[in-house]
Design goal:
Blueprint lengths: L8 E6 L8 E7 L2 E7 L12 H5 L14 E2 L8 E2 L2 H19 L4 E5 L5 H15 L4 E3 L6 H10 L17 E5 L3 H4 L1 H12 L3 E5 L8 E2 L2 E2 L2 E3 L6 H14 L5 H7 L2 H11 L6 H8 L3 H11 L6 E5 L1 H4 L4 H14 L9 E4 L6 H6 L6 E2 L3 E2 L3 H11 L11 H10 L4 E5 L3 H4 L3 H9 L3 E6 L11 E4 L8 E4 L4 E5 L11 H12 L8 H11 L8 H7 L1 E3 L43 E6 L24 E4 L1 H7 L6 E6 L3 E8 L7 E5 L7 H4 L16 E7 L4
Parallel strand pairs: 6-7, 6-17, 8-9, 8-13, 9-12, 13-14, 17-18, 18-19, 23-27, 24-26
Antiparallel strand pairs: 1-2, 2-3, 4-5, 4-19, 10-11, 15-16, 20-21, 21-22, 23-28, 24-27, 25-26, 25-28
The protein binds iron/sulfur cluster (SF4).
The site of iron/sulfur cluster (SF4) has 14 residues, from helix 1 and helix 6.
């Protein structure tokens, strides 16, 4: 730790990186961070932290921060610094002009799942009340939207079922498409502690993640499947459960819709879903699948499933989420500690942004915009008439921009040019718009296509709340003034006022009070309560005034749990002689997502570039050696990285991270997406990899 002096003031706040939501004491000297001390009373982390939350805060005071609003008439013009008043008035006049010329639906907004709950709530309110449409979306679209869909269908609530602490009661842990030690390190450590104490481990992943083989830990089964075959594996696991008498009949009979169970059981029992039939599809030996299923379904044991983007970011992402819920219900592993269906949310506030109605089809609290009763509640509170038909998702906005009907985008905290698939298409869509507004800390990749830049505020510069992967709502506290004068919620409010829809919040606590008044699961939440309790897990209401650590005890939120048939459908992304390898992607411990923050901190010394992992056999076939530059070509585009030759990946599969814009990971990903939610299929791209000279 580099000591920067004695702190003069401090506040308890919440890490702004991943969905674990660790509590920290931010110790400050004036407007400089002295250190971030993990908060021992933080329920998500209990005094622990990782290298991101602890050390990667330097971006907040980095020289690249933009602190003045800027506008330009054309993206080829230089930026002109302007006053806040001019920037807001210009933006409002452009949005009004565009709506007058092209129609009410020609504008929309994206709000990042890194923003606070209060900011997310205000952006969707701006869109619905001031823009007059439902064209609002969040980057949860491109990560965990299938979780929202799949868990709502089966269990009745779009959220994980447990607390993180619950893992301490698990006897068997199944990790599917997640890498907790890199992606969710503090929870990963908690899981490792339980594994060292004797819990069994099943890993379902195309790549050998650290949990498979690390000091004192060996997975009992590593189902090293071919990318894109998740649903085949879950069906094969379920086949073993139903054909070998491993169903928890008592639980299913008491808690689930029997008609749906019987149909599902008949489906998975078919010979084509057996491990033997699925062996050629998945590449996983049948006896391993059988062994894993028997272990998971051991009678009298607590078995928990933890999953990540390796489940959701597929053309069958929603199907797989439902398959996971089916397996948990069939084996009686829902509704108590130590079990459950646990999505490991990527960003700090993915759960919160979904809760806040940042989707084009849902009002806050997951109420569909076509629900007249819900609409009328918001209409009387907001004093507007709301639209009953869903708006445009991110890919639909981009598509409509290319087609010429979508002309203006307000983009708060997102960088779709780097983070969304098929970069060329995203750039072309943005170029086709007449007004792109970027609100961010830095001139990110999307700002290259912007006409207005509104400076954002870091988590140290504002008050609010984040909701982590276990539904825990925690306070974010301001420890320094916004570098550009205003917090993001204030900027949204100014824009709304300039557009003619009045907003007059004095403090984010007033926004939370409004959320609580309109959202049943947040009914008992207030800043005062959060100050008193430290944090609270929703649902928090009259029945559960101090929150709900474990969901679905006694009955499911939807009443009876519903089994849904999960038919495996191969992805359209096929390997061919021209593109013989499958590229899949993931994260590394020290960096975070598109790296806008972590690349501007000391953490860059741990990981200064993205590299491509390739199996020794594939490397030898191509004359590739460790450290060589390689060209990666897909049907969408190409990029160049340096190679790591390793058997962590299986033959036929290559892997990279996506933290640096110059690595161009999303230049090569495709526009395939989940059938239900349009979550992109980042995890399966057919590529060719060949040696190249240094670029
Ligand atoms: Fe922050 Fe996640 Fe690390 Fe905790 S585990 S310190 S929330 S990045």
């Amino acid at each position: 730790v580099v000591e920067l002096g004695q702190p003069e003031h401090s506040a308890i706040t919440t890490c702004a990186y991943c969905g674990v939501g660790c509590g920290f004491k931010a110790e400050m000297k004036g407007n400089e961070v002295v250190r971030m001390v993990p908060w021992k009373d933080g329920k998500a982390n209990e005094g622990h932290a990782c290298v991101k939350g602890r050390f990667a805060w330097g971006y907040a005071t980095h020289k690249d921060r933009i602190t003045s609003p800027m506008i330009r008439k054309s993206i080829n013009d230089p930026w002109q610094e302007v006053s806040w008043e001019e920037a807001i008035n210009y933006t409002a006049s452009e949005f009004k002009r565009i709506q007058a010329k092209y129609g009410q639906d020609s504008v929309g907004a994206l709000v990042s799942s890194r923003c606070t709950n209060e900011e997310g709530y205000l952006v969707q309110k701006l869109v619905r009340a001031a823009f007059g449409n439902n064209n609002v979306d969040t980057c949860a679209r491109v990560c965990h939207s299938p979780t929202g869909y799949g868990l709502k269908q089966t269990l009745g609530e779009s959220a994980g079922t447990q607390t993180f602490k619950s893992v301490e009661k698990s006897d068997v842990i199944m990790v599917i498409g997640a890498n907790p030690t890199d992606g969710h390190p503090v929870f990963g450590s908690r899981m490792k502690k339980r594994l060292r104490a004797g819990a069994k481990l099943i890993v379902v992943d195309p790549r050998q993640i650290d949990l498979v083989k690390s000091p004192h830990i060996r997975s009992d089964f590593h189902l090293k499947l071919k990318p894109g075959t998740n649903v085949a594996i879950i069906s094969a696991l379920a086949h073993v459960v139903v054909t070998e008498g491993l169903v928890d009949e008592e639980f299913v009979k008491a808690r689930c819709e029997m008609k749906s169970f019987n149909e599902w059981r008949d489906f998975v029992a078919k010979p084509e879903n057996s491990p033997e039939a699925m062996e050629t599809v998945t590449g996983v030996p049948a006896e391993q699948i059988r062994g894993a299923a028997r272990l998971f379904a051991t009678k009298g044991k607590n078995a928990a499933i933890y999953y990540g983007l390796g489940v959701t970011e597929h053309s069958q992402g929603s199907t797989m989420v439902m398959g996971i819920a089916n397996l948990a219900m069939a084996t009686g592993n829902v509704g108590r500690e130590g079990v459950g269906v646990n999505p490991l949310r990527g960003q700090n506030n993915v759960q919160g942004s979904c809760d806040m109605g940042s989707f084009p089809h849902e009002l806050p609290g997951y109420r569909h915009v076509s629900d007249a009763t819900a609409r009328s509640l918001f209409e009387s509170a907001w004093n507007v008439e709301l639209r009953a038909e869903p708006g445009l998702r991110i890919p639909n906005m981009l598509g409509a921009a290319v087609d010429g009907s979508f002309k203006a985008l307000y983009c708060e905290g997102e960088d779709p040019v780097q983070s969304d698939p098929d970069t060329q298409h995203v750039a072309h869509a943005l170029e086709s718009m007449e007004c792109v507004v970027v609100q961010d800390l830095f001139l990110n990749e999307t700002a290259k296509y912007a006409h207005v830049f509104l400076p954002g505020a870091s988590f140290l510069e504002k008050d609010g709340t984040f909701t982590n992967a276990e539904r825990r709502i925690s306070r974010v506290r301001k420890v320094m003034p916004p570098k550009a004068k205003y917090a993001d919620w204030e900027v949204t409010q100014m824009l709304s006022n300039a557009l003619g829809y009045p907003m007059n919040y004095k403090h984010p606590s007033e926004i939370m009070d409004e959320i609580a008044a309109l959202t049943p699961t947040f009914k008992g939440v207030s800043f005062d309560k959060l100050d008193k309790l430290g944090s609270v897990q929703w649902p928090c209401n009259d029945e559960a005034p101090e929150g709900t650590p474990t969901m679905h005890i006694g009955s499911f939120v939807r009443g009876k749990g519903k089994f849904i048939i999960t038919q495996y459908v191969p992805t359209d992304e096929k390997i061919t002689p021209k593109y013989p390898l499958i590229l899949t992607t993931g994260r590394i411990l020290s960096q975070y997502n598109v790296g806008a923050q972590t690349r501007r901190t000391e953490n860059v010394h741990w990981h200064s570039e993205d590299r491509l992992e390739i199996h020794p056999q594939d490397a030898e076939d191509r004359g590739i050696h460790e450290g060589d530059w390689v060209g990666i070509q897909s049907r969408s585009g190409s990029t160049v990285l340096r190679a790591i030759v390793t058997d962590k990946v299986q033959p036929g599969v290559v892997y990279t991270t996506f933290h640096f814009p110059e690595s161009g990971a999303n230049v090569i990903t495709t526009d395939n997406s989940d059938w239900a939610t349009n979550c992109p299929e980042y995890k399966v791209t057919a590529v060719q990899v060949l040696p190249v000279t240094q670029p």
